[in-house]
Amino acid sequence: MALLRMATALLLAGLITAHTAYAQVTLNFVNADIDQVAKAIGAATGKTIIVDP
């Protein structure tokens, strides 16, 4: 019984992770500063974006 619960929990965790891995983001910047755009994209992707002045 414990093995079945563990297998079910792992299956559900995998499904949740797979669903969020392909989440889409729509950006709509009108007359935005490039620094604001870089920060928003960095926050959405989890990456650091450095803008060269």
From TrEMBL:
<protein>
    <submittedName>
        <fullName>General secretion pathway protein D</fullName>
    </submittedName>
</protein>
<keyword id="KW-0732">Signal</keyword>
<dbReference type="Pfam" id="PF21305">
    <property type="entry name" value="type_II_gspD_N0"/>
</dbReference>
<feature type="domain" description="GspD-like N0">
    <location>
        <begin position="27"/>
        <end position="53"/>
    </location>
</feature>
<dbReference type="InterPro" id="IPR049371">
    <property type="entry name" value="GspD-like_N0"/>
</dbReference>
<feature type="signal peptide">
    <location>
        <begin position="1"/>
        <end position="23"/>
    </location>
</feature>
